[in-house]
Amino acid sequence: MDAVYKKRTLETVDYTPAAAVAAGQVLQLPDGRAAVAPSAIAAGVLGAVIVSGLVKVTKTANIQFLAGGRVFWDHSDSAAHFRAVNDRDFYLGTTPADAAAADTTLTVDLNASQRVTVDALAGPSVSVAVGTQALGGFLPPVVHGGSRALQLTSTSEAQKVDILSVDAVALASRPIFEGVFRVATNGSGSASDFNIGLANATHASDAGAITESAFLHTNGNDLNLYAESDDGTTEVAETDTTVDFAAGSAAADRVEVWIDARDPEDVQFYVNGVNVLPATVFDISAATGPLKALAHYEKTTGTETGGPIYIDRMIIRTNVEAQAA
Fold it and tell me: Which residues, listed in sequence order, are joined to residue 138 by a DSSP beta bridge?
């Protein structure tokens, strides 16, 4: 016997609010933790607030969540969101179950940390730059805080710069990839391509030649976001998600992509919390793996420039089982 089931109980702590708190209100404590008031507390009066356990909160409309995903509290809208947006937003926890766009509420494991199997930015990764490297010119990924920048230069040559996680997962582990990136400057021509997602390897010149992959894809001089997949048997060419990105380096310009491979015969893509191309069958079931996290920026030839493209997040999480909310 590996474990004995124990019923989960809500944990509370004492709290004296400066202003009155309503029953059911979500708030942030002075130590940064999220909390929920089970009953009203008058200003200056000692009460108790919930800081751990499963709670049900209002969800942002038309946003989807995947089991195990991060949840933030949108302070302005008083609703759960998949990211914070430079406001009074704060981390809420993780969700134990998928949530549909039409759902009005979301179950959250309050203050729980997300379980990550592969982290290509915080953990080990490799990068091989193909092209003429020079200070002030073409370089491997450049560190900017917790982000990495990929950039192509005007040297007339084929160039490639990438980030490939050292750690990998089996397809049978039911992986979900999460990536966040900002395209500060898009490619100046059509010779450049950017891909981010799951792959069994990198490639010296062409991400499209990688035998096993599921990518969100951009083309130079094009604001469309595309999805594509390949498992060595079935290939789905780049398909327009009908979602465009805005070029820029601000927080508002972030693109967040989730690639849900829990069902490898029908991989689902999500862009900024919305399921895109749900009717397109991205089948990677023939992949033998293992699969890694990859960001890959390339140009075939010529003097086209591109980037920087900032990679803010690139993780894989596994063994995600849907649970009853």
Answer: 133
